[in-house]
Amino acid sequence: MRKIFLSLLLVGYLAACTNKEEQNQNANTKPADNANTHEAVVEEVIYVSDYTYLRVKENEKEYWLAVTKTEINKGEVLIYKRSMEMKNFHSKELDRTFETILFIDQVDKKLGSGTLTTPQKPVIEKLNVKVEPANNGITIAQLFNNMNSYSNKNATIKGIVTKINSGIMKRNWIHIQDGTSSGENFDLTVTTNEKVSMGEEVIFNGKISINKDFGYGYSYKVLMEDAKTLKNL
């Protein structure tokens, strides 16, 4: 069933490309080697409107991948299984033809991978935003000021999406800010399977975990997990 879904997805992508950003009408496509799990180190990242192009290295072999637009950094290790190869693929936005490129329907990041010897969470910049709390919701400042009382309970918080990391441990990791702060704590990390956009105002409801440590330098004083988006209240 998964193979059928992937085939339909990629066929739909190729059809949509005639109305979207890029497609070489004479490009040849074929399924790539999908039998094994691949781990590839990111050597170069190029963003366009809808996709992220990645030059990667796997076992001394360099090649190009394409994924739906996702924030990926040089030095990270990507894990994927299924792909579709396109030959002589032309990107109109880049005005560039890739001799061969693999389109990936699902990719995960290897936790802790990167260019640093000791992986670290990215530095988050405090933005000048002001978001009124949702009805029956709380602010980020209130959460951090009373984190013990919210531990293992659900909370509702409205904020602006300031950073997105997709496909890590089969979840999307979203950073939101609402303009409030408790000391140096002004940013809330949210894990969810839902998709949001950068700069979007969202309302999340999820379980609050405190002092969560995943190892590899990824620890969180406060984390909202398994969140769902709510309509504007």
Could you characterize the architecture of this molecule?
This protein has 233 residues and is mainly β. The chain has two domains: 2-109, OB fold (Dihydrolipoamide Acetyltransferase, E2P) (Beta Barrel), CATH 2.40.50; 140-230, Nucleic acid-binding proteins (OB fold (Dihydrolipoamide Acetyltransferase, E2P)). The chain has helices at residues 2-16, 140-145, 147-150, and strands spanning 28-31, 38-47, 51-58, 61-68, 77-80, 83-91, 96-104, 108-109, 154-168, 171-177, 188-192, 201-213, 219-230. The strands form two sheets. Strands 1-6-7-4-3-2-5-8 form an eight-stranded mixed beta sheet, with no helix packed on it. The protein has a five-stranded mixed β-barrel with strand order 9-10-11-13-12. The longest helix is centred in the N-terminal third of the chain and has 15 residues, at 2-16. Mean pLDDT is 81; it is low at 1-27 and 114-120.
Task: Tag the structure with descriptive keywords.
mainly beta, single chain, disordered N terminus, 2 domains, 11% helix, OB fold (Dihydrolipoamide Acetyltransferase, E2P), five-stranded mixed beta barrel, eight-stranded mixed β-sheet, 233 residues, 3 helices
